[in-house]
Amino acid sequence: MRSERLAIRRFAATDLTDFLAYQSDPVVRRYLPGEPMSAAQAAGYLAVQADLDDGVRDAWHGYAVHHLGEDRVIGDVGVWLPARPAGTGDVGFQFHPGFHGRGYAFEAMRAFLPYAFATFALRTVTATCSPANTASWGLMERLGMHRIEETGEYVKYGLTPSEPSAR
Ligand SMILES: CC(C)(COP(=O)(O)OP(=O)(O)OC[C@H]1O[C@@H](n2cnc3c(N)ncnc32)[C@H](O)[C@@H]1OP(=O)(O)O)[C@@H](O)C(=O)NCCC(=O)NCCS
After folding, report:
1. Ligand 1 pocket check: which of 73, 74, 94 to mutate, most ligand atoms within 8 Å of Cβ?
2. Domains of the chain as residue ranges with CATH
């Protein structure tokens, strides 16, 4: 996929330096489960993602967000595809702090959401984050997603194929 400033594509092993630059950063991982990634973990993740077929389920399908002008990966977007219920996906996004606040995550997700709905034949897309992660759920709201659940631990948003951000 392409947008004005970005290319969104499957990962390659050669993305390691760019990917690790933000995935090893505790600021980026602050609201996410798990520790900041080591180089070995990042290389393992990229190897799996580079080989992943669209048809694999019960899997996270991650995509590199490549900044065309800077010629580097500045973040990733992706979708968890469960085997059941079929036709559902849970999206996520993580960007290098040096590229926050410039609309890149929004631009990438505006390209990725229609792609994901079409490629994986989705009937619904959700996204979940900590209530304290205002940057994350603020993005979900700018994308036209609707808050469908909230607890003290998480907020959950949803989108269906007929809505503008899905097309
Ligand atoms: C969640 C995350 C991706 C959001 O990134 P972001 O840069 O804030 O999101 P956007 O791309 O929508 O950018 C929005 C900001 O860019 C500004 N902006 C500048 N140019 C813009 C443009 N051309 N288009 C849209 N927004 C633009 C907006 O005004 C907004 O600014 P504000 O934050 O001061 O209100 C980022 O905070 C992140 O990577 N966090 C760490 C990982 C994480 O927690 N991920 C979520 C897990 S569920």
Report:
1. 94
2. 6-166 (3.40.630.30)
31 lines ligand 1 (CB under 6 A): yes
For the CA of 30, the nearest atom of ligand 1: 44
CA distance 9 to 27: 24
What does the pLDDT look like over 89-125, one tens digit per residue? 999 999 999 999 999 999 999 999 999 999 999 999 9
134: phi > 0 → left, psi -120 to 50 → alpha, else beta; which? alpha
Could you tell me the pLDDT band of residue 33, with boundaries at 50, 70 and 90? Answer: confident
143-158 pLDDT, tens digit per residue, is: 999 999 999 999 999 9
- Answer whether 91 contacts ligand 1 (Cβ < 6 A): no
Ligand 1 centroid to Cα of residue 149, in Å, is 22
